[in-house]
Hints:
Radius of gyration: 24 Å
Number of helices: 19
Structural class: mainly alpha
Largest sheet: none
Amino acid sequence: MTRPTGNVRLKAARVAAGFNSQQDLADALSEHATRMGIRGLSIGARQVRRWESDSPPWPQPDCQRVLVQLLGQSLEALGFTPPWGAHEPASGPGPRTPAPRAATGLGLPGAPGRVAAMPQPTTAGTDFHAVTKSHRRLYWSVAPAGLHPAVEAHATLGCLLLRDAAEPTRSVIAEALAETYLLAGRIEFFDLREPGLAHETLLLALQAAGEADAPLLGSAVIAHMAFIPGWVGDRDAARERMTAARTYARRTHASAEFLAWLDAVEAECETRCGDTRTALHLIGHAEDVLKDGNAHASPEWMDWFSPARLAAFKGNIQLLAGHLPQARATLLEALEAMTPGEEKQRTVVYGDLAAVEAASRNPEGACLYAGQALDQLALTWYATGMDRVREVRRALSPHQHERCVRDLDDRLYGWATTVSALSR
């Protein structure tokens, strides 16, 4: 007798619920999502086929909710294994009794109360955190497409360690795991341009931060999640996430630098949503916060912000607000203040300076700065920086027959640059 293959649990639940085909279940899930108030979720037969495969991917959060609601079983009972591993084997239909959790209740495994078969030694937390710190530093020099798989693999290891760790080692691993997932999410959003994937990864970062009871790290994760709706103009979602980020920051001792960064994130979201006036007000508040300072140090993992980067935020907003002389001065100050290790942000500032010159009808100046951005991108790839250069090239369309613009095109669409950009 041939043994069934694939995710037989989901197949059995589908048939038991009266859905004879994968398409039937896909249609029912899409309809049920609408009834649940989940907008824009469309599930196809291809997705259901992946879920019923030998190695079903962990569903996205909205899909998780609809699957559980429609079929009446937990995800584990439906044959899915969380990225961090299962608490215990699923034991038949119906929701399982949840395993003991930490006070946060965010669902990562191995919470206090769970007896590990082979507890990890106290050195496991220190060793895992050391690799996390190394990945953090490597982000600024290693190609993101090369670093991302290593960070993902490290996160997988962290999930395994977390299941078999007792306090205080468990909290050390959980916090390092949260930082690892945060780094992976940053790469996916800023470097690989995968906002959907970044959202799922940042959710895992938030869960790990909850297990570590690290509110400041949780605040940082949620603020990064605000970028995702902010960049597509969803102001309400971005503001809601920023409110949550500020709430988490109030639960601990946040540094002036961290609070200023929250202002800068919200300012960028407001700018993307078309409200540069509010954005400039937020930047002004951030500058005041940095001037006042306080007694709290910034966490070592917060290596993505500085006064120079705040100036870069401000210059970009002034540019988009049409305040060109002010934007030029601010961006030049930011460029001057940047230190070694901020090369990725330097490409963005070059791109914004190019945009200032393009808006000022100075194509030669725009091409000069765009060329400097390409020089830096050849050394340190950053998708956000390349986006700025492409925006400048579109703004230079009225001057496309001028020699400087053609020279820029030769660089922008050279063999290496074109293949590299398209492959990313």
